[in-house]
């Protein structure tokens, strides 16, 4: 059989397993979710889960890598596009806020899991989670650093903490939007966070 076709089919199967796992775990928690349920939700045989992932923990660890990898790529692409079209680094940050909101809007269950897992300890995948979190934050750090270097941003800003704060702001604001203010549009939420980023909350111009 054509190896590329096999690879494509396997990737599609893994995607189905990711989606089934993330939905179930968001609904009922990691411990309560069984491999049988994941297989059933994905519409595959139980053996298929173990063929693709050694265990439920490995599946979840890969799920975290996969999801945060998508988020990181989305942030990076948004920043590069903004700067590539002549924007400033602040425009790149603004574009990343929108991209982050868009990602969370597409993958709300994954985002809930990711935020919940950040605060748990003694998980088998804790070190993986720290690594992938840092990859996402590093994209924002790069833009902040470039803004400081070109004089657009103050040299006094704490780049690692500011980057983490921006990522955290988008995650928490988006979850709040979906849970408590779902009637608001993505444009509306982005506009509010954009004003915060531009420092216009106090009424300055």
From TrEMBL:
Protein keywords: DNA-binding, Transcription, Transcription regulation
Highest taxon of the lineage: Bacteria
Pfam families noted in UniProt: TetR_C_24 (PF17932), TetR_N (PF00440)
SUPFAM superfamilies linked: Homeodomain-like, Tetracyclin repressor-like, C-terminal domain
Annotated HTH tetR-type domain residues: 11-71
Residues of the DNA-binding region: 34-53
Protein name (record): TetR/AcrR family transcriptional regulator
Species of provenance: Streptomyces longisporoflavus
Organism phylogeny: Bacteria, Bacillati, Actinomycetota, Actinomycetes, Kitasatosporales
């Amino acid at each position: 059989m054509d190896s590329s076709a096999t690879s494509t089919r396997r990737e599609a199967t893994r995607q189905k397993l990711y989606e089934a796992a993330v939905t179930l775990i968001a609904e009922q928690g990691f411990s309560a979710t069984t491999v049988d349920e994941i297989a059933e939700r994905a519409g595959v045989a139980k053996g298929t889960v173990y063929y693709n992932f050694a265990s439920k923990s490995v599946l979840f660890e890969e799920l975290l890598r996969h999801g945060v990898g998508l988020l990181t790529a989305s942030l990076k692409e948004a920043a590069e596009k903004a700067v590539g079209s002549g924007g400033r680094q602040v425009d790149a940050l603004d574009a990343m806020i929108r991209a982050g909101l868009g990602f969370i809007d597409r993958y709300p269950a994954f985002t809930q899991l990711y935020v919940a897992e950040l605060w748990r300890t003694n998980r088998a995948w804790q070190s993986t989670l720290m690594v992938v979190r840092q990859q996402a934050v590093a994209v924002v750090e790069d833009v902040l650093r470039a803004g400081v270097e070109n004089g657009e941003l103050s040299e006094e800003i704490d780049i690692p903490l500011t980057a983490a704060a921006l990522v955290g702001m988008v995650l928490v604001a988006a979850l709040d939007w979906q849970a408590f203010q779902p009637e608001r549009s993505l444009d509306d939420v982005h506009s509010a966070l954009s004003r915060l980023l531009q420092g216009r909350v106090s009424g300055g111009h």
